[in-house]
Design goal:
Strands 1-4-3-2 form a 4-stranded mixed β-sheet. It has 2 helices and 4 strands. It is globular and about 50 Å long. It has about 90 residues and is of the alpha+beta class.
């Protein structure tokens, strides 16, 4: 294939860390904000909430909570019924 170089490097989009409870997610977000870490994206759907930030090396990370019971009730509708306090999207 002339002109097309195939990269031999490996990469990733981001690392994701699942929190056991919604309150755990709120707590880790509060800790990140208190340390001056920018939360650059909040993702919400009917059964989960995720928050994205970069670590000091510039790697993208996500902390999230999934509510499987909410998924079973309504997997395709709207945003998660709980909102993170003090965190905006």
């Amino acid at each position: 294939m002339t002109g097309n170089k195939i990269s031999k490097s490996v990469g990733s989009n981001h690392l994701a860390w699942e929190m056991a409870t919604f309150n755990d997610l709120q707590e880790i977000c509060d800790q990140l904000v208190s340390q001056g870490i920018e939360l650059f994206r909040v993702r919400s759907n009917s059964y989960s909430v995720g928050v994205y930030f970069n670590d000091p090396d510039g790697n993208s990370n996500e902390v999230y909570f999934e509510d499987i019971e909410a998924f079973r009730r309504r997997p395709e509708e709207g945003e998660y019924h709980r909102k993170l306090v003090g965190i905006s999207s």
